Structures are given as C-alpha cells and as structure tokens.
Amino acid sequence: MTVSIFDISSYLPQNRVSADYFAQYAKDDDLAENVMFRSPAYRHHVAADETAVDMAERAVAGLRERHGEAVLDDVDILLTHTQLPDLPFVGCGGEVASRLQIRPEWILDVHNGGCVSFVLMLKLVQQMMASSSARSALIVNMQNAAGQIFVQEQVRSTAQASIPGDGATAALITRDGGSPVLGIETRNFGEYAGDMTYAVTPHRKYWEAGSGQGRVAFTEHKISKVLARGNRMVPEVALAVCDRIGVPSTDLDALVTNQPNRIFLRNWRDALQLPKEKHPDTFDECGNLFGVGIPHTLDQAISEGQVQAGDTVMLAGFAHAGDYAAAAAVRWGGRGQ
Fold it and tell me: Which fold has domain 182-332?
C-alpha cells in the first residue's frame, strides 16, 4: 500500500545558542579533536519549563496555519517519538492528542528508531493503514535533550555537549495524495544495541539519586566503530531503496539524512555520488537533532526551494551506535497536495 506525506511542519525553540556558550566551559577532553564532535555554529535549546507536549503543539501549529483548524479532523493514528520523555513509564501521545483536541483510534509512543524514527514511523503507518480503515496519521518527533542534559554543569564542558540541538516536527500522512512514499527499507542490528551506554560518576542507575550528572558514554574505540557502521549502513539502505524503485542514486533530486556531524554528511553524499547542493544540511544552524533531523531538514529544504514538486527525495539515516538503519524514497508533490 502507498501512503503519502500531505505536509510537514517544524518548530525550533527561541533560545538560539552559539558555539561560544560551550567554548567558555570547555576543558581538556581526549575527544575534543575527534571528527564526531566538531561543533556546529548554532543550536536551539528548549526552555526550562517547556515540555515535549508543548513542542509537539508548536510543531503542529504550522500545519493548522497552512491548512486550517480542521486539517487533523481525520487523524486515526498518532505516533510520537520523544528523545527525553518528560515522565518515566508514560509516553506523551495521550497528552498530545488531548492538547490537539483529536481522538485517534491508535496512539503509539515509539521509543526505538532514534535518529531514523521518522522513517520507522512512516513504515508503521503504512502497515497500519494497509490493515485498517484509518484515514490519516500524524507523526510527531520531539528532540528535547540538548537544553536539559547537555547544559548540566558536569556535562557542558565535554566535547559532546555542543553537538545536540532541540526541535520538533509534525507530519500528516494520508492514504493518497501528491507526495507518495515510493519505497521503504529498514534494518535492525541488535548486536550493536549494547554499544549505546549511559555514564555517571560516581556510578549509579539513572533513576537513583546522586551527585553525578548523566551523559552518553563515548570512547575513541567506540567512536571508530560507530563511524565505520554509519558510513556503511546509510548508503546500503538508500541504495536498496533505489534498486527497489528503479532510480539510480545519481538521479535522486535530494538526499535528506539525519544530521550527526559534517564527516557523515560528506561521506554519505559521496557514497551516493551526489553533489553537495543535493544534500540539504541543517547541522550548522541546528546541530544534531536526532530523530527530528530528517523531518526538519526535509521541511527546511521544501521551504527554501531545494525540494520542489516532482522531485524524488531519499530520506536515510542510522540510529544510536548503529542498531538500526532505514531509508525511504518520496516523490514530493507539494504541500497539501
């Protein structure tokens, strides 16, 4: 079954933070010169009192401004991915539905998928619509860890702290329309899931009280493995979709990937033999938006004319330390078509 992206909308928090903020706290760090942690010029941080649901509502606002308050009336499926849930145990999907005043039959808080959760949720929507009478679906991605985890006093001096940014996106998916999803490829690599680890000094479980502040744990060895995996995985899934839809990678009009760092961006477009102008890039303005990176970069590329009606766009990326990779091809038909 074919589903279509009706439209997509983004939200970036008002707090635009320059690299100088982190430079003032920087300390000697063995990873400071690593290509994975070369800082973007800017990133946006959530406000102290801003919740994931607030971000979702603000992302959806763009859809309603363009298409009217009734644009979500037929939403039967709501899928959300939140990088840092506001509450343990409970996802935010139910509260998002309440805030938006919609009553979908299905509400799923998708926790896995990471930086390619948007593509994973596209596939879930496709399967759910194929087996039901659902009319449309709303996919909401929220990245809210940068302004909460990476500005902590013990974390902001590390090389990794300046890379993430915050933001949210909302995409309305319909059964038919002018922007069909032509093909999707998803691959799981569970053997790498354990390479994503949490560190705190002194050691404790993340929910236990203590003086140390938690962060993602990186080592030179682990980074080398992640670089090798990412460089291989993303072209592989993108080329698999190209083969399936009969479009050589060189004929793609745009490649939209997650935005982890400059080295990955360069290597991915080189592997697909695409020029830089066909690979939209939001890294220097937004940093690594994790799961928001692909949909936000697509939204920006559409708004800036880098993606136009009739273009074949490849969405591709990998998640965490390489436990998941996914790609999807879309023929863009215009907003609300």
Answer: Peroxisomal Thiolase; Chain A, domain 1 (3.40.47)
| Range 60-73 average pLDDT | 97
Answer whether residue 110 shows pLDDT above 90.
Answer: yes
CA 142-40-117 angle, to 5 degrees, is 30
Examine the pLDDT at 241 and tell me if it is beyond 90: yes
Please state, in angstroms and rounded to a whole number, the distance separating the CA atoms of residues 284 and 151.
Answer: 18
**Residue 286 · residue 316 · CB < 8 Å:** no
Give domain 3-177's CATH architecture.
3-Layer(aba) Sandwich (3.40)
Cis peptide leading into residue 13 (ω within 30°): no
Q: Region 219-224: what's the mean pLDDT?
A: 86
Straight-line distance from the first to the last Cα atom of the chain, in angstroms, rounded to the nearest whole number? 18
Whole-angstrom distance, CA of residue 39 vs CA of residue 146: 13
The ranges of the chain annotated as CATH 3.40.47.10 are 3-177, 182-332
